[in-house]
Specification:
Elements: H1 2-19, E1 31-34, E2 39-41, H2 42-58, E3 65-69, E4 77-79, E5 90-98, H3 100-104, E6 110-118, E7 131-137, E8 144-151, E9 156-162, E10 168-170, E11 184-188, H4 196-210, E12 221-222, H5 229-237, E13 241-246, H6 248-255, H7 265-268, H8 271-277, E14 280-282, E15 301-304, H9 307-324
Parallel strand pairs: 3-5, 11-12, 11-13
Antiparallel strand pairs: 1-2, 3-4, 5-6, 6-7, 7-8, 8-9, 9-10, 13-15, 14-15
Helix pairs in contact: 1-2, 4-9
């Protein structure tokens, strides 16, 4: 199953790279349509077509599966085609491009995110996922694209792929072992104008409680807004970031933005890899991050490179949220 998801990622990466070589191709940033979950750009349409093609050609018939992905919100999509959902044994959730906005302008890598769970119908949740893979979609100037995968209870497999000749090399990734946040990256998501002021106020209150603000000649905490949940997960896995939190499902209603874009289950489906690598990922209350395997449920999460960092932040963050978010 892990190898299958990695092969899917390879196919989508290569299909996207090939589309960039077509002369006179449609601008990848052109809007294709609006879905219930997000805006779909032309670059997304390319990946959706490649996704369906791969499943038609490669998914094993003896593992009937229901596919959940953005753009497939209507009638259930199963493979082999026509299999009743009740007869599928697996549910596969995929984000063909996580990080569309950065990738379509060739600014920063996107990611293919894919994971599998036993089929439990509408009751299937993120916590049921037992295998996951994330495959880097590189910018045009990159020669290397990374791929990280995991099976629950069996650790992480990481490789770098030379996109010029397809050779693969083992990759060593390790979350940060830092015991505090000084001179490190720690971010609360604020990709878009909506909710940015409130999120920034929460961050300021958090870091004021822990370290104080403007007490040194240079800032102690660095912020990096990688507009991709998969990309954020990678930064934690690689030891680049010490904390990342996506609290948009809490922030937006409090700021009066009920319909703004938030993290969905297909964005968070590779959190299994974080768990296998030892990264702490949880809700702000400290519980397990969970949601149905669909394309619309909101997912709020916060992740720490290690438990020492998590223990340091939890009390201050909860106090800041209690002070600045209206009580429900």
């Amino acid at each position: 199953a892990r190898r299958l998801l990695c092969a899917l990622g390879d196919h989508l990466r290569d299909a996207l790279a090939l589309s960039r070589t077509v002369k006179g191709a449609v601008n990848p940033s052109e809007i294709s349509r609006e879905s219930q979950a997000d805006t779909i750009y032309h670059i997304d349409k390319i990946s959706e077509e490649a996704l369906a093609f791969w499943f038609e050609k490669n998914w094993p018939a003896d593992w009937p599966v229901e596919l959940v992905a953005e753009g497939l919100e209507g009638e259930a999509t199963t493979f082999p085609r026509g299999t009743p959902v009740a007869r599928t044994v697996l549910k596969c959730i995929v984000d063909p491009i996580d990080g569309t906005r950065g990738l379509m302008y060739d600014k920063r890598s996107g990611w293919v995110l894919a994971a599998l769970a036993p089929q439990r119908g509408m009751e299937t949740k993120l916590s049921d996922l037992f295998v996951a893979a994330m495959t880097e979609l590189p910018t045009t100037k990159q020669w290397r694209a990374d791929q990280i995968s995991a099976v629950r209870g069996h650790g992480v497999v990481a490789e770098s792929v030379n996109v010029l000749d397809r050779t693969r090399t083992p990759l060593s990734l390790a979350p940060s072992r830092a015991t505090d946040f000084r001179h490190g990256f720690a971010t609360l998501v604020k990709f878009f104008p909506e909710g940015r002021v409130l999120t920034s106020r929460i961050e300021e209150r958090l870091w004021e409680r822990l370290y104080g603000l403007s007490r040194t000649h240079a800032p102690l905490i660095f912020d990096d807004e990688y507009i991709s949940t998969g990309g954020q997960f990678y930064e934690l896995l690689a030891g680049h970031d010490r904390m990342i939190g996506d609290l948009r499902p809490l922030i937006y209603p409090a700021a009066g933005h009920e319909t703004s874009l938030v993290c969905h289950p297909y964005d968070a489906c590779t959190m299994l890899i974080l768990e296998e690598a030892g990264v702490v990922i949880e809700t702000v209350a400290g519980g397990r991050v969970d949601a149905p395997l669909d394309t619309i449920s909101p997912v709020a999460w916060i992740a720490f490179a290690n438990e020492t960092l998590a223990s340091l932040v939890r009390p201050a963050l909860r106090e800041a949220l209690a002070e600045l978010l209206p009580a429900k």
